[in-house]
Amino acid sequence: MEMKVGTKMSEEKQQTSSSEATRDKMLSGSAWMTAGSMFSRLLGAIYIIPWRIWFGSYFLLGNALYGFGYNIYSFFLIAAIAGIPSAIAKQVAHYNALNEYGVGVRLYKRGLVLSVSTGIICALVLYFGAPLMDGGNPNVIPVLHSLAWAILVIPTMSLTRGYFQGYQQMAPSAISQFVEQLARVLYMLLTAYLIMQVWHGSWITAVAQSTFAAFVGAVCGLLTLGYYYWKRRRTFRSLVANSNNEIKVQTSQLYHEIIAQAVPFIILGAGITIFQLIDQYTFFDIMRMATNYSNDALNDLYALFAVNANKLVMIPISLASALAITSVPLLSVAITKGDTKAIKGQTTNVFLLFLYVMTPAALGMAAIAGPLNRVFYGQAHQALGANILSFSAIISIPLGLFTVFAAVMQGLNQNKRAVKYFLIGTVVKLAVQWPCVYFLGTFGALLATGIGILVASGLIINNLNKQYGFDNKLLGNDFAKISGYSLLVYGSALAVVYLLNFLLGLFIDPNGGMASLLVSLVSVLVGGGLYVYFTLKYRVADDVLGPRSEGLRARLHIK
C-alpha cells in the first residue's frame, strides 16, 4: 500500500514538474516573441511622429494611401508565405519530439523551395496586377509596385523563423524581427525627409519609398537569421547525427505535409487582413450612400480608423500574436504524445496569459486614447481620432482572442474546423457591415469587425472546451480578478489624464505634443503599476507566471 502511495505521489510530482517545465518554455518563448513584437510595433508606431511632421498637410492622404497599399500587400504576403513558417514550426516540433531531427531538416529544405516559388509568383501577380487592384485610385499602383519587392524575400525569412521556433528557439526570431523593423523605419524616415523636406518632391513618391522600406527591412532580417543559423549550426548537426533515423518520409509526403498544414494557416493568418479588406472595398460606397462627404473627407475618415487607430491597437494585438506563435509547437508536441491532460493545462495557460496581458493593455489604451492620439497624430480631428482609438482598443480584445485561439486550434490539428468557424465569422461581418457603417460610420466598420471576429472566437473556444476542457474554476476566478484590476487600470489612467490635463492647463497648452506625451507616460506608469501590484499581492500572477511571481514580489517588496 505504501509503495502504491509513493508511486502515485512520484507520478504526480513528475506531472507537476513537467507542467512547470512546459509553462516555463511557453513563458520564455512568449517573453522573447513578446519583446520582439512589442519593440517592432513600437518602432512601427513611433516613426509616424516625424513622418507626420514631414508630410505636413499631406499626412492623412499619405497615411490613407499607405493603408490602401499595405492591406492589399498584407493579403498577398500571407498568400506568399502560405502558412509555411507556422506549418514548418509545428511539423519540426512534431518530429523533434520523436527524436527525428533529420526529417525536420528535410522539411525546412523542401519548405524553402515552396516559399521561394510562392514568393516569386505572388510578387509578379502583385506587380503586374496592381492596376486591377487599385480600387479606382491610380496612386495605389506605384505603392503596390514598391511592395512587390518585399514579397520576394519575406517568405524565406519567415520560413527560417518558423524553423527556429520548431526548436522552441524564439530569440533569433524576435531579434530578427526587431532588426527588420529598425531597418525599415530608418529607410522610411530617411526617404520621407529627403523627398518631402529637402527635395520638395511628390507625397505619392514619398509614400512609395516608405512602402519599399519593407524590402530593405526584410533583407536585414534575413541576414540576422543567417547569422544565428551559422552560430548554431553545430548544435543542429549534432541533433541530426543523434536522431533515431527510424522514420523514412518520401519527398512527395514532405510536400504534402507542408501544404496540408499550410493552407489553413493562410486563411486564418489572413483573418484580420481579410476583415480590413472588406472595410477597404465597402466603406467608401456605403458612406457615399449615407452621406454627402467629399472623397478627401472619406479618405481622412478611413485613415483615422483603418490606419491611424489600427497602427496603435496592433501593439497589444502583437502581444496576442506572440503568445499564439509560442503555443503552436508546444501543443503539437502534446498532441504527438497523446497527452490530453497537458493539452488542457496548456490551453488554460494560454487563455490566462492572454487575459492577463491583453485586457489591461486594451483598457489602458482606451483610457489614454486622447493624449496618445495627439502624440502620434497631432491635433487634426483630435476628438474624433481619440474616440475612434478608444473604441478600437476595446475591439482589439476579440481580435487578439481570435489570433491566439486560431493558432491553438492549428497546434491541435483542428485546422478545418478553425477555418470553418472563421468563415462563419466572416459571413457575420459581411451581414452586419452595411447597417453598421450606414448608421454608425467609422465606428460601424469597427463594430462589424468586432462582432464577426467575436463569433468566430466564441465558436473556437466552445469547441476546445468540449474536446479538451479548460480549468474553468481557475479561469472563472482569475477572469473576475483580472477584469476588476483591468477596470482599475482604466479608471486610474483616466483620472490621471484628467488631473494632469487640468494642472498642465494652468501653465501650458495641455493638448501640445510634449504635454500629451507626459500625460500618456504618467498614466501608463500609474495604471500599470497598480495592476502589477494587485495581481502580485493577491496571487493572480501566480497562476500565470508560476514560481517567477514569488521572485517578483520579493524584488518589489510586496507581501
TrEMBL record:
<dbReference type="InterPro" id="IPR050833">
    <property type="entry name" value="Poly_Biosynth_Transport"/>
</dbReference>
<dbReference type="InterPro" id="IPR002797">
    <property type="entry name" value="Polysacc_synth"/>
</dbReference>
<feature type="transmembrane region" description="Helical">
    <location>
        <begin position="313"/>
        <end position="336"/>
    </location>
</feature>
<feature type="transmembrane region" description="Helical">
    <location>
        <begin position="70"/>
        <end position="89"/>
    </location>
</feature>
<feature type="transmembrane region" description="Helical">
    <location>
        <begin position="212"/>
        <end position="230"/>
    </location>
</feature>
<feature type="transmembrane region" description="Helical">
    <location>
        <begin position="348"/>
        <end position="368"/>
    </location>
</feature>
<protein>
    <submittedName>
        <fullName>Polysaccharide biosynthesis protein</fullName>
    </submittedName>
</protein>
<dbReference type="Pfam" id="PF01943">
    <property type="entry name" value="Polysacc_synt"/>
</dbReference>
<feature type="transmembrane region" description="Helical">
    <location>
        <begin position="185"/>
        <end position="206"/>
    </location>
</feature>
<feature type="transmembrane region" description="Helical">
    <location>
        <begin position="421"/>
        <end position="440"/>
    </location>
</feature>
<keyword id="KW-1133">Transmembrane helix</keyword>
<keyword id="KW-0472">Membrane</keyword>
<feature type="transmembrane region" description="Helical">
    <location>
        <begin position="388"/>
        <end position="409"/>
    </location>
</feature>
<dbReference type="GO" id="GO:0005886">
    <property type="term" value="C:plasma membrane"/>
</dbReference>
<feature type="transmembrane region" description="Helical">
    <location>
        <begin position="446"/>
        <end position="464"/>
    </location>
</feature>
<feature type="transmembrane region" description="Helical">
    <location>
        <begin position="31"/>
        <end position="50"/>
    </location>
</feature>
<feature type="transmembrane region" description="Helical">
    <location>
        <begin position="514"/>
        <end position="534"/>
    </location>
</feature>
<feature type="transmembrane region" description="Helical">
    <location>
        <begin position="485"/>
        <end position="508"/>
    </location>
</feature>
<feature type="transmembrane region" description="Helical">
    <location>
        <begin position="110"/>
        <end position="130"/>
    </location>
</feature>
<keyword id="KW-1003">Cell membrane</keyword>
<feature type="compositionally biased region" description="Basic and acidic residues">
    <location>
        <begin position="1"/>
        <end position="14"/>
    </location>
</feature>
<keyword id="KW-0812">Transmembrane</keyword>
<dbReference type="InterPro" id="IPR024923">
    <property type="entry name" value="PG_synth_SpoVB"/>
</dbReference>
<feature type="transmembrane region" description="Helical">
    <location>
        <begin position="258"/>
        <end position="278"/>
    </location>
</feature>
<feature type="region of interest" description="Disordered">
    <location>
        <begin position="1"/>
        <end position="23"/>
    </location>
</feature>
<feature type="transmembrane region" description="Helical">
    <location>
        <begin position="142"/>
        <end position="164"/>
    </location>
</feature>
